């Protein structure tokens, strides 16, 4: 196998692995119990896109001009919900911690996440290097992942 073939085979394999974890699906293939729960909770949702992730169904949508995401179990129960929030709505303790830990970084995006009543924040920071960080509602650092 030559160099180009090896590269192409590797890229194909990465694509197959990535697509096995999350798969875009047509709304008509979403179970009715899940669609019903979603439509009841978010009747004004627009730009609705569904994915199947493992046993769960994830839906990306907009309410007004704000990006949202909800994850549902096969039973129709909400597993988690998240939405973009303005940087100014990030709790001050978290903003202060980020400024101290990433002095050259710039907060690019903030997601407010509710998983079974537990609130966390995912913050995308542009800087050297770009990272995503998670904090709990009290301002405790959870983790950092390179972006």
TrEMBL record:
Signal peptide positions on this chain: 1-22
Key word NAD present: no
Coiled-coil stretches: none
The keyword Signal appears for this protein: yes
Protein name listed in UniProt: Putative beta-lactamase-inhibitor-like PepSY-like domain-containing protein
Residues covered by the Putative beta-lactamase-inhibitor-like PepSY-like domain: 56-143
Record-annotated membrane-spanning stretches: none
Key words, A-Z: Signal
């Amino acid at each position: 196998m030559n160099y180009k073939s090896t590269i192409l085979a590797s890229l194909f394999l990465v694509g197959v692995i990535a697509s096995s974890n999350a798969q875009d699906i047509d709304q008509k293939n979403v179970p009715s119990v899940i669609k019903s729960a979603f439509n009841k909770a978010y009747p004004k949702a627009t730009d609705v896109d569904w994915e199947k992730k493992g046993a769960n169904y994830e839906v990306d949508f907009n309410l007004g001009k704000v990006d949202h995401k909800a994850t549902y179990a096969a039973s129709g129960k909400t597993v988690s919900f998240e939405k973009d929030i303005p940087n100014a709505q990030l709790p001050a303790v978290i903003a202060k911690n980020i400024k101290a830990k990433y002095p050259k970084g710039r907060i690019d995006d903030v997601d407010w996440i509710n998983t079974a009543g537990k609130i966390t924040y995912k913050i995308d920071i542009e800087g050297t290097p770009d990272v995503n960080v998670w904090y709990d509602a009290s301002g405790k650092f959870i983790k950092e992942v390179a972006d």
